[in-house]
Structure formats: structure tokens, C-alpha cells
Amino acid sequence: MANVLIIDDDPLIGELLIKYINDMGHQATVAETCSRGVEKVLAGVFDLVFLDVVLPDGDGLESLSSIRTAASEPEVIIITAEASTRGAKMALENNAWDYIVKPFSKNEIRLSVERSLEFRSSRKALSSPENILYRSDIVGKSTALVSCLATAGQCAKSDVNVLISGKTGTGKELFANLIHENSLRSQNRFVVVDCASLPEQLVEAVLFGHVKGAFTGADASREGLVKNADGGTLFLDEVGELPLSVQKKFLRVLQERKFKPVGSTKEIHSDFRLLSATNRDLPKMVKKELFRKDLYFRLSTIHIDLPDLKECKSDIKDLTLHYIYRLCEHHGIENKGFVPEFLETLKMYDWPGNIRELINILEKAILAGYDSPILYPNHLPARVRLPYLQSSMEKKRTRMDDPGFVLKKSTDTAFSIHLPKNYLNPIKPLNQLKKHIMNETEKLYLLKLLASANGNLDKAASLADLSKSHLYALLKKHEISRFE
Fold first, then answer.
1. CA-CA distance, 128 to 140, in Å (whole number)?
2. Is residue 55 part of a domain?
3. Could you tell me if 14 and 22 are in contact, meaning their C-beta atoms sit under 8 angstroms apart?
4. Residue 34 lies in a domain
């Protein structure tokens, strides 16, 4: 029996989903706001979450990443009355299982629940002790990274060709090495070919080897990198740089695992597993005939697209702890700590150079604070510190410009929230103040809503994306008449 959480403010939708889920033999509970839903999922154990997009206290999609960090790692199904490309894109980027538009059918819900729970079971099986990956220097637990690791784990079980894409510094070689280290070939060689640094006139000789006298300077026969990888893994780094003249020959090697060294008439066999990586857009290169379509399809039987560091900022703390320890050990100094502002500064920066840039910056910070046991933001370069400083100044400016608790709704009508003096003198608990402000804000919103809808409750409910029953309840709570 699965435990399901429904985050939706519409009582009718909640009741309907509970009935569907109970009929399937599972258990369901409801939360009517984003904050309450996130609170429940972080504190409880849920297998599946139904998440509405428009909720009384915010956009459900914006809470997706928080829900995905829950210890129980529930699958998430988005349900919404307003389908949008942005919403679907955001849902997919955060690995939501499904995106269902209201109104929905019982069969649609049943199928999505069954498939998501089946996927969850298979994902949990992958994380069982016998399927644990040796991760080496791949650090982090963000949703995007874990998804890539799961795919890499599956690839390690077979000899399927894998193409790893991602911007410079995202860890493509680390992922290739991870697949090799977790495969049955791990006891044999992991041979790296840096296609970007190969001289074009010597590419074939480096890859396939050559016999003595095959060309000027070939004073002895040499085995190529493809043969070096016999029984192990051949990793073509920056494969997009491979010359077209060599791509055709390499395609044949992939198909037959046979080739002739330069200057030889004898074919050589090599049983290698192929992994490739690129930071270039190979499909675009294929369209421009800069890369062979047939080779591209052979290379990318499985495709792993690594995320930028700015998409995995929740991993920055773990990465920072890991690499500070490694770098201090490398330089023979005591491990260093850091103040909270140091980490916040790192999180505010966008990291165009990704993890490689982070490692480089951490090493500079360690050397800049060589004699200090603690790292501070001033140990970081100006370009890294700037976004944090700009954010701090913006927050300060916002506070200084804040006229108080007055919300102006238009040039001809001003609504204000009254803050009784007894909340500040004597000082009352902050939660009491927050509750008062939220209550007053909700009332002002309802007054403006009714004015915009000319007292028409159907139109008001539609504008607010609320069920009519929910709108009635809010109006009753604040003792508001539609004619006010």
C-alpha cells in the first residue's frame, strides 16, 4: 500500500483523488497550501505527491525542488487547470513523473499512479546494497545529478555505447570513469583519447597504431589506443573534434571491432567498450554535415546530459566540504572550516565554468587564507563575491524603501493593512504578527477581487483560480459581502 499526499486547495478535487486512490488500495491525505504540503512531505514518508500549480500561498511548481529533497524521495504528479509550456518544462526539469491537466478521468489517474509506483520500485531496487555505485569524486544528491547517476548505473551493467554531454567542467570524464569502474571491465584499462588535442595528420596513427616506416618519423611500430583498450574501455573525450576523414573509419571499427594500423595490411581485433563525451551540439553538427549521422547514432545509444552547477546549487555545500578536504590534504595543510557567508557567496555565483571552476576557486581561497583555519568571503575573487554583495545591497535598499505595511493597489484606490500598536508595544511574538498580516492581506485581496469581478462570484472564482465553495468559505471567514 502506497502513502499518497495531495496538495490541492479545492475540496472537491481532494475528495475525488482520495476516492480514486483508496479504490486502488492506497492511502491518501490532503494539504491545502504549498507550505503545509512541503511541511507534511518533509516530515512524513510518502511514495507519491499530487501537486496543484495554483495554490493560496504560491506556485506549486516552485515547491517542486523542496519536495524532491524529502528523505522519502516521492514521485511527483503535477495536476493543473492551466496547462502551460513553462509549467510542463519546469515539471520535467525537476523530474516530475507526470503533468495532468484538469479535468481528468479516473483511468488517467489510475494509470499514472500505477506507472509512477512501478518506476519508484525499480528506482529503489537500483539503490539497494548490491546496486550501490562507486562514485569516486562525484559528489552531491540533487535531483538532476541523482537522475544522471541512475542512468550511469544502468549503463555500467552492459556494454552499450554511451554519449555523455555537458558544458566544460561538468564532470564528463568522471562519469565515464564511474561507468567503467562499476562495469565488468573495471579490472582492465580505461583508455582516454582527447580528440581535441590530436594532430589531424596523426589521428589515425594514434588511434589505430602504425608499423615501422609507415610515415616520416615512424622509426618503430606502435600499438594504437584502440588496441590499448582491448578488454577494457575506450573513452573518446570531445568526440565532436574527431575529423570527418577518421569518423568513417572509426564507424567500421565500432561495427566490426577490427582495424588496420597505418601502413599495415594485417587486421587487428580489439574488444573494447566505447564511451564518448562532448560539450558541442552534435545534432546541430550533423545537420551542418560536420559530423556523421550514422556515427552519432552509434555513439548515443544511451545519452547522459550532465547539468550545469547552477542547476544543482544544493550540491555546492557537499562539493565545497569534499574539495576543501581534498585540496588541504594535497597541499599538506590542516583541513579548513568556513563561515556561513563563505558558502552563501558560493551559492549566489552562477559558475560558468561549473565544478572545475569551483575546485579552482576553492584552491585559490585555501592558498589565499593559508594561515587561517577558517575561510571567509574575502578569500574569494571579486567576481565570485560580487553577486552576493549585490544581493545584500538590494535587500537593504528594499528595506529602506519599504513605506511600511501599506499596499497601494491603484492610483485612485489605496488599501492599507492596519498594524495595531499593541503588536509592537509591547512586542508580540513574530508568528502572531505574521498571522495578522496574512489575514489582513487575504481580506484586501478578496475586496479587490470582488471589485474586479463586479460582484460576480463565478467570475471571481475563475480569476482567483479557486473553487466556488472555497471562495464562499473565504468570504464568510472575513464577513465580506459581494456588494462591498
1. 18
2. yes
3. no
4. yes
Cβ neighbours around 483 below 10 Å, total: 6
Of 245, 250, 198, residue with least CA distance to 229? 250
The β-bridge relationship of strands 27-31 and 3-7 is parallel
Does any domain span residue 208? Answer: yes
Q: Which of 65-69, 118-122, 194-198, 417-421 has the lowest mean pLDDT?
A: 417-421
* pLDDT tops 90 at residue 453: no
Q: Using an 8 Å Cβ cutoff, are 292 and 286 in contact?
A: yes
Question: Within 10 Å of residue 354's Cβ, how many Cβ atoms?
Answer: 22
289: left (phi over 0), alpha (psi -120 to 50) or beta: left
What b/e sequence results for 307-329 when a residue is b if at least 16 CB atoms lie within 10 Å of its CB, and e otherwise? bbbebbbbbbeebbebbbebbbe
Look up the CATH number of the domain holding residue 180: 3.40.50.300
Strands 268-269 and 258-259: antiparallel
**Closest Cα partner for 9 from 66, 67, 52?**
52
Of 272, 307, 342, which residue is a domain's last?
A: 307
Range of the domain at 396: 310-401
Say what the pTM is: 0.62
Domain contains 482: no
Judge whether residue 136 has pLDDT over 80. Answer: no
